[in-house]
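quick q for whoever's on today - can somebody do inverse folding on this one?? i tried earlier but teh output was garbage lol. tokens:
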């Protein structure tokens, strides 16, 4: 089988950056054979300007919301944004399908090879069946009240079965909670039982109103509940932060993606680490910087997540809250505003960390012999990425 050879201004292997004097060698399908010094590579080396990288991993997206591109204006704040998503989802199915196809193609062309995708419906299944991307479909449960917990779990369980029937290996699918403000205590308990030893995802502390809801029972989320006919907060008043209130519902050995973390303080990170260690949970901190800027015009304090063993990964969120679906642009958003985080670290978040978090590290995320991780070229300023193979 013919071999292909690639070099670039820099070569990132999933772990570290290497200089121009290294050449990646693969078979014609992109299965990695070796990385060798340029002097040993011989002829026919394809040379590129930029960073040659394993395929990128998007750990948080909502493919089925792609039709909301440019529908909700930036900087509305989270509460108004959520109200808009709830009230503006009613589009023709033909348009929804076309925009899902466009978004999938965009991610493929950007060199994204695996996606942790949030699903409320079966709308994206047909596109996923034809996609070159590997999908972990997080079928997202919204269940505001204990009274409807069983009914809601049944409803989303049916959506999960549609995904499982249509998408076999190497794809994956399981139930997941939406957010601390949309899952009642009984619903959390049922989700804990239903997701034992699985990987789940939850939107965490995107707005100060999440903490206010659990500390006082009031705040901006009451406006969201009214859209659903719920006149007062159905969540218990714990007097604690949101994270300290919801995390103890999980005791089943789950891997939990905490997504966004825009307002998560250091003391809550310390609590989460201690609780996870005591209860055999694995935490993953997932950041979607452009979505944070789009909605709240704010980034998390990345420094509060330093020092732990948790994987840190990147996502794009959906086209309802982003200008593009590009992991390179997520790296750019952080690098331009928090230059103290090394580029090598950000690239790790975007590749091997994401593959590990989704359980795909055996063949994605790094240029190691025998893997077929995809190959992409990232612009030196992270303004774009392009699929090479």
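ok took a stab at it. sequence:
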């Amino acid at each position: 089988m013919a071999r292909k050879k690639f070099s670039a201004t820099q070569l990132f292997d999933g772990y570290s950056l290497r200089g121009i004097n290294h050449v990646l060698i693969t078979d014609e399908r992109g299965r990695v054979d070796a990385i060798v010094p340029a002097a040993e590579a011989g002829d026919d080396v394809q040379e590129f300007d930029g960073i040659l990288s394993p395929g990128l991993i998007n750990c948080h997206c909502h493919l089925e919301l792609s039709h909301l591109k440019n529908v909700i204006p930036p900087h509305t704040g989270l509460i108004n944004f959520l109200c808009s998503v709830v009230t503006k989802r009613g589009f023709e199915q033909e348009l929804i399908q076309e925009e899902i196809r466009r978004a999938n193609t965009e991610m493929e062309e950007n060199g994204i090879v695996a996606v942790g995708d949030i699903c409320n419906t079966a709308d994206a299944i047909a596109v996923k069946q034809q996609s070159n991307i590997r999908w972990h479909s997080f079928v997202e449960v919204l269940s505001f009240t204990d009274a409807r917990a069983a009914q809601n779990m049944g409803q989303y369980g049916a959506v999960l079965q549609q995904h499982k029937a249509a998408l076999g290996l190497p794809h994956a699918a399981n139930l997941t909670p939406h957010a601390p403000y949309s899952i009642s205590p009984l619903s959390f308990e049922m989700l804990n039982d239903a997701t034992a030893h699985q990987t789940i995802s939850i939107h965490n502390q995107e707005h100060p109103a999440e903490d206010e809801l659990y500390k006082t029972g009031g705040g901006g989320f009451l406006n969201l509940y009214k859209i659903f006919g719920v006149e007062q907060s159905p969540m218990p008043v714990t007097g604690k932060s949101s994270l300290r209130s919801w995390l103890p519902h999980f005791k089943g050995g789950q891997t939990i993606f905490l997504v966004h973390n825009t307002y998560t303080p250091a003391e809550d990170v310390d609590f989460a680490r201690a609780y996870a260690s005591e209860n055999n949970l694995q935490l993953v901190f997932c950041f979607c910087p452009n979505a944070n800027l789009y909605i709240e015009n704010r980034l998390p304090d990345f420094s509060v997540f330093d020092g732990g063993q948790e994987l840190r990964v990147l996502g794009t969120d959906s086209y309802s809250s982003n200008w593009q679906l590009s992991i390179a642009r997520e790296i750019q958003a952080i690098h331009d505003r928090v230059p103290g985080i090394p580029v090598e670290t950000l690239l790790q978040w975007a590749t091997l960390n994401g593959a590990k978090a989704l359980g795909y590290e055996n063949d994605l995320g790094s240029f190691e012999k025998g893997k077929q991780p995809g190959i992409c070229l990232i612009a030196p300023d992270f303004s774009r990425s392009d699929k090479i193979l």
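fwiw The CA atoms of residues 204 and 261 lie 5 Å apart. also The chain has 13 helices and 15 strands. so keep that in mind when u check it
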